[in-house]
Write a sequence for this structure.
């Protein structure tokens, strides 16, 4: 075993003594240097990208604000559609007719109520009295 | 030992000429390590190039208090380890290179020839080893680095290092016995 150890150590020493050398040092150096990226250019590129990203984001935000403004204005000016099904028309009736007179409001209420999905016995009742003047 | 802190600071600011000094000083060391681990000239050249590119790109991460050489060694070892694992996966083995670029080791031609033959054999043997064993064997027995340095470079514990080294040495011994060289 000791003999083997000696041979192994000698063998290892022989291998260690062999120093690999670069065949063409300057060629490898040139190859390495030419493959390096320009840090200043990269930094400028990054900065430029960041600025354009900020510009783009602010543009998107501005258009979003404008859109929401237009939607708000449109909603405010939208005409009230009383024929719509299942709508809470009582509130709208109040808005539309409360300052005119109570009879108009009631007439409208009956008209809308008859159009909505109300139980048949109520519809029947309204249809019986629809021609009667209040 | 040369103080590289000023050069590193300049490299961080994008000074390529300062980095050329680093490449000039360290490329023989990194190439030697890569040849010993990979056992192939073109692979070693690629690893050397990739190591310096990585060093250039991540220079900001280097802490000036630690050793620059060890940091470069670490990058090179990681590159070698990744490449070895890639080679193992694909099942590709290195062609036995008859004339690896070694400087003459002895004045005696016969001794030099023997050493060359031993180097060829070690490349052949280590080619069959698992990547980590190959890395640890090269760093400890060829490059003669300390346990602490190897643990820093490879990121393994001293216990893992010990066991990997034990199996690597055993593997080499068995191969030598099998080839009737021991």
């Amino acid at each position: 075993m000791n003999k083997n150890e000696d041979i192994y150590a000698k063998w290892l020493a022989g291998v260690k003594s062999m120093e690999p050398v670069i065949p063409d040092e300057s060629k490898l150096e040139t190859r390495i240097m030419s493959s390096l990226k320009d840090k200043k250019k990269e930094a400028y590129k990054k900065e430029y990208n960041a600025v354009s990203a900020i510009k783009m984001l602010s543009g998107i935000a501005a258009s979003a604000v404008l859109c929401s403004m237009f939607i708000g204005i449109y909603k405010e000016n939208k005409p009230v559609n009383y024929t719509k099904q299942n709508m809470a028309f009582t509130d709208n009736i109040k808005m539309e007719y409360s300052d005119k007179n109570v009879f108009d409001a009631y007439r409208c209420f009956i008209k809308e109520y008859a159009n909505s999905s109300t139980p048949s016995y109520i519809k029947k009742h309204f249809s019986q009295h629809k021609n009667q003047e209040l | 030992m040369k103080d590289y802190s000023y050069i590193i600071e300049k490299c961080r600011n994008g000074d390529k000429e300062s980095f050329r000094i680093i490449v000039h000083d360290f490329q023989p060391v990194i190439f030697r390590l890569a040849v010993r681990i990979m056992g192939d000239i073109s692979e070693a050249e690629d690893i050397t190039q990739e190591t310096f590119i990585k060093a250039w790109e991540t220079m900001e991460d280097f802490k000036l208090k630690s050793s620059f050489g060890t940091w470069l060694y670490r990058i090179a070892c990681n590159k070698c380890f990744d490449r070895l694992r890639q080679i193992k996966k694909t099942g590709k083995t290195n062609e036995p290179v008859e004339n690896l670029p070694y400087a003459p080791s002895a004045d005696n031609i016969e001794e030099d020839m023997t050493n060359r033959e031993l180097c060829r054999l070690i490349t052949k043997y280590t080619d069959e080893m698992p990547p980590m064993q190959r890395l640890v064997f090269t760093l400890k027995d060829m490059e003669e680095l300390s346990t602490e340095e190897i643990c820093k470079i490879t990121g393994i514990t001293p216990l893992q290092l010990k066991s990997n080294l034990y199996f690597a040495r055993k593997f080499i011994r068995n191969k030598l016995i099998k080839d009737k060289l021991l």
About this structure: Chain B touches chain A at residues 13-14, 16, 19-20, 23-24, 27-28, 31-32, 35-36, 41, 44-45, 48-49, 52-53, 56-57, 100-103, 105-106, 111, 114-116, 118-119, 122, 141-142, 144, 172-173, 176, 181-182 (CB under 8 Å). The mean pLDDT of chain B is 86.
